[in-house]
Write a structure and sequence with these properties.
Strand content: under 5%
Number of strands: 0
Radius of gyration: 17 Å
Shape: globular
Number of helices: 8
Oligomer: single chain
Largest sheet: none
Length: 200
């Protein structure tokens, strides 16, 4: 990836993370919880979502520390109250999955543009947008707190597995950091497969 493409990737992953968070709030609002709406977070205005650490400093730091292999950003988490949701068991799952789904829809839209206009100068950037959003989607689906995939895992775990949930709640971020620095390559085949499938 050349410098221009790398810069574009950094610029596009931030708006993608913002849309990801907006989708969480939108879904929560649809399912009965207006917390995000009352907090002024049902907007794509970056000023409402940018987190200095997660949106700006962390992606740059990860890029430097991993030698350019990995860059991830997150926007300020949208607040929501799961107790307001009409479905207490599966409501949090749908709220959690709304973010990755938004990234998949973005990737699909730009993949379609890439296929329809393969010879235009912007086609390479369309492909980068697809790659950025697929990476965000797959990474967020990991069943490790605080990532979105953990909401699905918690819904599927039996009540008797409360010790597992307690362990993940306590050490999830440490496990996540370990995964990013030592195991992220395990996701690369899945990410590459989905990107290839979308771009054709």
């Amino acid at each position: 990836m050349d410098f221009v493409s790398l810069l574009f990737y950094f610029v596009i992953i931030i708006p993608s993370a913002i849309i990801h968070e907006y989708a969480h709030g939108w879904m929560a609002n649809q399912l009965g919880d207006p917390t995000a709406r009352y907090a002024g977070r049902l907007t794509i205005d970056p000023r409402a979502h940018i987190d200095k650490w997660g949106t700006l400093l962390m992606p740059l730091g990860l890029f430097i520390l991993t030698g350019g292999r990995f860059m991830f950003a997150y926007a300020k988490p949208v607040p929501y109250n799961p107790y307001n949701l009409r479905d207490q068991k599966w409501g949090p799952v749908w709220v959690g999955l709304a973010g990755p789904l938004a990234n998949f829809l973005l990737a699909t839209a730009f993949a379609l543009a890439y296929r329809l206009f393969p010879l235009v100068a912007a086609s390479e950037f369309f492909a980068i947008i697809v790659a950025a959003n697929i990476t965000l989607m797959v990474f967020n689906l990991l069943p490790i707190p605080p990532l979105d995939g953990s909401k699905l895992l918690y819904a599927l775990l039996p009540t008797s597995a409360y010790k597992i949930r307690s362990f993940l709640d306590r050490y999830g971020f440490v496990i996540l950091l370990f995964f990013v620095f030592f195991l992220f390559d395990l996701l690369s085949p899945i990410i590459s497969l989905l990107i290839s499938w979308l771009l054709g």
